[in-house]
């Protein structure tokens, strides 16, 4: 297990659609090491999620975890979740403006419309099938990671460029208002 380099915006791999993983590949020691590396890399960078192409691997694998993350104090906890060949479907038309950042887009944030309720179908690292509903900010996190696997960055989804801000300016001028909106969303729909 090791921390890998996270590629940043402009690197072509971030714009590629990742390919599905076969059962034999998933069972291989090399792919299990890759998943461990992704977890270590996400944790070392303080992220809430990481997709394989963010470390240069065009495989449909992502990891998500939120456990008292100081970068995201407003996000509800999410236990470590490994997503292999995930599919995310909106359950209804309701969306919410989520202020997002990305480990591959250092020091920049912006508002993105995300579905509030999504169904996530995925395999875990052992190949077991999961079919679950994710809500609120957590739903947004899963949509963000699936976008990566399709070669889409949050930058592509920002409709109003005036919402772009650096991390420092977000914390100084926007964090309190967004945290209040995030807490209200979590209270209303859950996580």
CATH class, anyone? Alpha Beta
Helix content: 25-40%
| Beta-strand segment tally | 7
Backbone structural class: alpha+beta
Model description:
Strands 1-2-3-6-7 form a five-stranded antiparallel beta sheet. The chain has a two-stranded antiparallel sheet with strand order 4-5. With 191 residues, it is of the alpha+beta class. The protein is 33% helix and 29% strand. The protein has one domain: Peptide Deformylase (Alpha-Beta Complex). β4 and β5 form a beta hairpin. The radius of gyration is 16 Å and the shape is globular. It contains five helices and seven strands; from the N terminus they run ααβββββββααα.
Q: What distinguishing features does this structure have?
A:
191 residues; alpha+beta; Peptide Deformylase; five-stranded antiparallel β-sheet; 7 strands
Blueprint (SSEs and pairs):
Blueprint: H1 23-27, H2 29-45, E1 49-51, E2 61-66, E3 78-90, E4 95-102, E5 105-115, E6 117-123, E7 129-135, H3 136-149, H4 154-157, H5 167-189
Antiparallel strand pairs: 1-2, 2-3, 3-6, 4-5, 6-7
């Amino acid at each position: 297990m090791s921390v890998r380099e996270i590629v940043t915006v402009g690197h072509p791999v971030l714009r590629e659609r990742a390919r599905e993983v076969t059962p034999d590949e998933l069972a291989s020691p090399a792919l299990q090491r890759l998943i461990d590396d992704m977890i270590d890399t996400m944790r070392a960078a303080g992220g809430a999620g990481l997709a394989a192409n963010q470390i240069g691997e065009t495989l449909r694998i992502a990891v998500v975890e939120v456990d008292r993350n100081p970068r995201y104090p407003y996000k509800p906890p999410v236990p470590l979740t490994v997503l292999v060949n995930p599919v995310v479907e909106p359950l209804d038309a309701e969306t919410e403006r989520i202020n997002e950042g990305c480990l591959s887009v250092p020091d920049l944030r912006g508002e993105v419309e995300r579905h509030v309720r999504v169904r996530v179908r995925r395999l875990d690292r052992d190949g077991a099938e999961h079919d679950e509903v994710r809500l609120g900010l957590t739903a947004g996190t899963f949509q963000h990671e699936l976008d990566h696997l399709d070669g889409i960055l949050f930058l592509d989804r920002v409709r109003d460029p005036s919402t772009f801000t650096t991390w420092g300016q977000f914390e100084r001028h926007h964090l309190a208002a967004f945290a209040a909106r995030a807490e209200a969303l979590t209270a209303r729909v859950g996580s």
